[in-house]
Design goal:
Blueprint lengths: L1 H30 L5 H35 L5 H13 L3 H16 L7 H24 L7 H13 L8 H33 L3 H40 L3 H4 L5 H19 L4 H22 L9 H4 L17 H11 L13 H6 L9 H7 L20 H21 L4 E8 L3 E8 L5 H5 L2 H8 L5 E3 L8 E6 L8 H5 L2 H4 L6 E7 L4 E5 L6 E4 L6 H15 L5 E6 L23 H24 L5 H13 L17 E6 L2 H22 L5 E7 L9 H6 L2 E4 L5 H8 L12 E5 L7 E5 L4 H14 L6 H9 L24 H13 L4 H8 L3 H13 L18 H10 L1
Parallel strand pairs: 7-10, 7-11, 8-9, 9-10
Antiparallel strand pairs: 1-2, 2-4, 3-4, 5-6, 5-13, 11-12, 12-13
Helix pairs in contact: 2-3, 2-4, 3-6, 4-5, 5-7, 10-11, 16-18, 22-24, 22-28, 29-31, 30-31
Length: about 900
């Protein structure tokens, strides 16, 4: 029994032990959950940051205290600390407090290298080296007898600021004993220089740039000043040439033979030189020669005519200050700039036409020169680039560098807090945003970075950020952060660039600068149509103006014709009467629909000519016409000789939504047909709207306009309508855009060029002064014919007062009542409700339609009911 009791007792203990072990195991699972490795590392990094912050505060305030102790002598314990500092470091005591403050700032910078221990060691060694330098250079020896007397001597000398104090015994004394004064000085200075680099984290390339920066700045200032002097010298040399035509008028009594021989020599030299210069310089030389030729009869005739007023002939001096703001420029200043750019001056009295051919078009041997042929064909002169202005404000590079360093550091730290380890591989600063390219650690999902967009914007205090994951062609993620100060991109620097000048196609336009600072140009002929969208204030109208100006700078009126449609009536009116316009700027939506219908008809006519002449597109047709015109007249086909080259046509619409509201079906049909077929005919469209809705930009329109530009929009939905993807809602406005030409998968972020209204006026005034607009009456008449009829407005109840209703026919009243109550106007419905035959019900429906109460039948669509039930009751009451 005892054995059995013992056995039962042991089994009870074992079961209790097992149960307690099970409880402990289950309790361990619930009380100690597993923590991810990323979270542990993030927690460790946070603790390290707190530790660095604490020690940076301690060292900073300690450095401030040491600064006051060093400067102020004081009494009591303060004087003791004052003498102790001086006795320890001697003359180097002045570096002790600044050194501590700098070490505190380096520790607070919170980078991996700037640990507390490392920076304290580097600062301490640098102080020992500084004390040794002072002892070696100022004293040169260690005075005293025994070892302790020498230490006491160093301390006493340090109190009176002689030598390096007691700290110089660590490095300065041994070096003096081993290498004497010269060798010790060289070694300790080099060692101090090395520890300065370690303490400041400066690399050798950074040190080299820091040393050479003042020399680079001076050299740039000297070269810029030299270039300005050269420009001023050229301008001064050019002024007498422009004023030469007036000299014969001022010098009355100068002998006539001298005046006749000198222009003759000049004429021969200028005519020969004009063959090798540009078209602009030819016209300038021609106009300069015509004035002396016209002034020759003044010296040949016996009776001199009265001289004109000098103020009418002499030009006003052109101001040399080029920093005038575009908005403040007056019309007179713009005219002077234009005239100066053309190398001529405005004259109130033109030269007689009879004398000009004798002096300019015929040389000394009686042969006709180039100028006689050029007078028959007007030469298009491009507007001068000088009327456009460069941006004034330049941001300090040091501020840019500091901003990039600060944001890159915050960006990496923010991602580390959320457990995302990354490293920055490259940084590109654009005019509006800076793209930080980060390479995630192995195992980090791109979706996790995309989900942290709002948190990154919060920590960087940014308005919005855009994440491109991944960057095309690179194993990294691009995070675009707005700049603190945006750079202005002027249209002048885009038009004056090599990328724009070297473009051969006449429909090339300046898009802007991308994130890498490169100038981007586009070609509408290859797009072949462009859709632009952006809310108010996003820079949509400025962008469309830059497209028009780019074409005006690159193409003549014979090469490109414009049709400008502006329902807002304020954006494009400035371009009226320029030679590139086919018709005046269209502001009426119905007339705009007619203009688009004319473009469709013109496209069909061109395709018929292409078919008749076996060519595929406009380029081949113009090449064929040019080849025919080069042949001799007797060898030309009389039918083909009548062909003329066709110009490209660019249609620019500023607000497409207004056109869709006024004449939606007609405008949509024309745009779809042009989008499908107009490319080969040389007709292209730029459609801009501030309402990128599905009812404005329909599916057929989107499918036929593959190139898109989106400026800032209000929502992700609008961004998807215009770009088929999000991102445009995060743009900054004021010309910040996403550019997606045909064939490009991911849109490119670009800052568009800005041209002030005064600059646009200057370009337009120049074109008006050089060329006159020639509108086609036939085209304008055809546009008027193709205008759709205006939609009928809804009639009010008073409009139906004159309707004659047969009071005896109660069925009509009943039918109208049923129709206005149910909203259903169909013959079969009346048959069922009034129990009528088909013929009677159809006749009643026709009578109700004649009365204007219901609309006409539109196929399978229900009839439109023009009045409400209240209006019908009012009509019955009046009757």
């Amino acid at each position: 029994m005892a054995a059995g009791a013992t056995k039962s007792k042991n089994s009870t203990k074992s079961s209790a032990r097992t149960a307690s072990a099970g409880k402990k195991t289950s309790g361990g699972k619930t009380s100690a959950p597993k923590v991810s490795k990323e979270a542990q590392e993030a927690l460790k990094a946070a603790k390290e940051r707190e530790s660095r912050r604490f020690w940076s505060y301690i060292l900073f305030f300690w450095g401030i205290l040491e600064l006051f102790i060093t400067i102020i002598k004081g009494d009591g314990l303060w004087k003791m600390l004052h003498d102790l500092n001086r006795g320890l470091f001697g003359m180097a005591v002045w570096l002790f407090a600044p050194m501590m403050i700098y070490v505190a700032l380096m520790i607070a910078s919170n980078t991996k290298k700037n640990t507390v221990v490392a920076k304290c060691i580097e600062g301490s060694v640098l102080m020992l080296l500084a004390s040794g330098i002072m002892q070696i250079l100022q004293v040169g020896t260690v005075e005293g007898g025994s070892f302790f007397k020498k230490l006491k001597g160093l301390y006493d000398d340090g109190v009176i600021l002689r030598g390096g104090g007691l700290a110089s015994a660590v490095l300065g004394w041994p070096l003096l004993a081993a290498f004497k004064k010269v060798g010790a000085a060289i070694i300790i200075i080099l060692a101090a220089f090395l520890f300065v680099l370690l303490l400041t984290d400066l690399t050798l390339p950074q040190l080299f740039r820091l040393i050479t920066r003042p020399f680079v700045v001076c050299y740039k200032a000297v070269t810029d000043d030299r270039a300005e002097r050269v420009v001023r010298r050229e301008q001064q040399q050019a002024k007498p040439v422009q004023q030469k035509p007036e000299k014969p008028v001022k010098l009355r009594k100068e002998p006539a033979p001298v005046q006749e021989e000198e222009p003759a020599e000049r004429k021969r030299s200028r005519i020969d030189f004009a063959k090798f210069v540009s078209e602009d310089e030819k016209k300038q030389a021609k106009e300069q020669e015509e004035v002396p030729a016209a002034a020759e009869p003044v010296h040949i005739n016996e009776e001199e005519p009265p001289l004109p007023d000098v103020t009418e002939l002499e030009p006003d001096p052109i101001p040399e200050d080029k920093d005038v703001t575009p908005d403040a420029a007056a019309d007179d200043d713009l005219k002077k700039i234009i005239e100066n750019a053309m190398g001529r001056k405005a004259e109130n009295k033109p030269a007689p036409e009879q004398s000009a051919p004798e002096t300019v078009n015929v040389d000394s041997h009686g042969q006709t020169t180039m100028f006689e042929q050029e007078e028959q064909i007007p030469v298009y002169v491009n507007p001068p680039v000088d009327v456009l202005k460069y941006p004034k404000k330049k941001i300090d590079p040091s501020l840019i560098e500091a901003e990039i360093q600060e944001k890159s550091q915050k960006l990496v730290e923010t991602l580390e807090v959320y457990g995302v380890k990354t490293r920055i591989t490259d940084i590109f600063r654009g005019p509006s945003v800076t793209r930080y390219e980060l390479q995630p650690a192995a195992g980090v999902k791109v979706a996790k970075i995309l989900g942290l967009a709002d948190d990154i914007a919060l920590n960087l205090a940014a308005l919005s950020i855009r994440i491109e994951a991944p960057v095309p062609g690179k194993p990294c993620v691009g995070i675009e952060v707005p700049n603190n100060k945006r750079d202005t991109v002027s249209l002048r620097e885009l038009i004056d660039s090599d990328e724009y000048r070297k473009a051969k196609d006449k429909l090339t336009f300046a898009v802007g600068k991308d994130i890498e600072g490169k100038i981007v140009v586009g070609n509408i002929a290859k797009m072949p149509h462009l859709l632009v969208a952006g809310t108010t204030g996003s820079g949509k109208s400025v962008f469309t103006n830059s497209i028009i100006l780019s074409v005006l700078y690159h193409a003549s009126p014979e090469e490109v014709k414009l049709i400008l449609i502006d329902p807002k009536k304020v954006e494009f009116n400035i371009y009226n009467k320029i030679p590139h316009l086919l018709i005046p700027v269209v502001t009426d939506p119905l007339k705009a629909a007619g203009a688009l219908s004319w473009a469709v008809n013109e496209m069909n006519k061109r395709y018929l000519q292409f078919e008749a002449n076996d060519v595929k597109n406009l380029e081949e047709f113009n090449e064929m016409v040019a080849h025919i015109q080069e042949q001799p007249v007797d060898q030309q086909d009389p039918v083909l000789a009548k062909l003329k080259p066709m110009s490209q046509i660019l249609i620019v619409i500023d607000e497409f939504a207004d056109l869709m509201m006024a004449a939606g079906s007609e405008v949509e049909d024309s745009v779809i047909r042009l989008g499908q077929l107009a490319r080969a005919a040389g007709i292209h469209m730029v459609i801009a709207t501030q309402s990128p809705r599905k009812d404005v930009i329909t599916g057929l329109i989107k499918s036929n306009i593959p190139s898109r530009v989106s400026l800032s929009v209000s929502s992700n939905v609008d961004s998807r309508v215009i770009l088929d993807q999000g991102g445009a809602e995060k743009l900054l406005g004021n010309g910040d855009l996403l550019y997606k030409p045909v064939g490009v998968k991911n849109p490119i972020r670009i800052q568009s060029g800005y041209a002030a209204t005064s600059e646009i006026k200057a370009v337009v005034e120049f074109l008006k002064s050089e060329h006159s607009a020639e509108y086609s009456e036939d085209i304008m008449a055809e546009v008027e014919e193709n205008m759709p009829k205006p939609k009928e407005e809804k009639k009010s109840s008073s409009d139906y007062e004159d309707v004659v209703i047969n009071p005896d026919d109660d069925l009509i009243d009943q039918a109208i009542t049923i129709i206005v109550q149910t909203g259903n106007a169909s013959t079969s419905f009346l048959q069922r409700k009034l129990k009528l035959g088909f013929s009677r019900a159809s006749r009643i429906m026709d009578q109700i339609e004649e009365m204007g109460i219901i609309g006409p039948q539109e196929g399978a669509k229900p009839r439109k009911i023009n009045i409400s039930e209240e209006e019908w009751l009012e009509m019955k009451a009046r009757r």
